[in-house]
Every structure is written in structure tokens, then in C-alpha cells.
Amino acid sequence: DPLAVLARRYIFRAPCARMRPSTRRIEHLKGLAEQYRVEGIILVGLKFCDLYGGDYLLVKRGLEETGLPLLRLEREYVLGGGAGQVKTRV
């Protein structure tokens, strides 16, 4: 059901740095990393977004206890644009 999928996306997506405290985002990321048994974390922030820039250090410190490598990427707010650049950096 498309409506259920859309609702689930809005309810369970990672909380935005602008709308929620970093502690909630950190716990969400830790839970995802454990649930999916990831080998590393790619933290993507929007270029020129001061909130993501300032929040990065808090999230990085919060995720250090997982022992997983962390890659920080900044991207422009363009859907589909720059996919090749992101792929290269990863």
C-alpha cells in the first residue's frame, strides 16, 4: 500500500538535526547499525547547513563507542544530482 509506505517513511526516518536533539539521532543510528550489522557508517549532511555541521561532532562522539568507522560526506540539496561524486568519495 503506497500510503502505508509513505507514512512509515515519515514516522521512522532519521530525525533531522533541526527538529530533534542529537541524542535521539545518535540512538537511532546506533540501533540501525546494530539491527543491520553494518561494517561502517556514512553520515551525510547537507552542504551549507549549519545545523548538520554543528551537530556532526556530537554525533561522531556518540557513535565512537560502536567502534565502527565513520565517513562524513557533505552533499548539495539536489535530488539525484552529484551521485557520481558521492560514489567516488565513498
Provide structural commentary.
Helix content is 52%, strand content 13%. The protein is built from 4 helices and 2 strands, in the order ααβαβα. It has a two-stranded parallel sheet with strand order 1-2. Strand 1, helix 3 and strand 2 form a beta-alpha-beta unit. Helix 2 crosses helix 3.
Short description:
The protein is an alpha+beta fold. Helix content is about 50%, strand content about 15%.
- Beta content comes to 5-15%
- Main pleated-sheet profile: 2 strands, parallel
Question: Which strands sit side by side, in order, in the main sheet?
Answer: 1-2
Helix and strand sequence:
HHEHEH
Number of strand elements? 2
The geometry reads as globular
Give the N-to-C terminal Cα separation: 33 Å
Helix content range: 40-55%
Separate helix tally: 4
* Sheet/helix structural class: alpha+beta
Report the mean per-residue pLDDT as an integer: 83
| Radius of gyration, CA atoms, in whole angstroms | 14 Å
Catalogue the unreliable spans: none
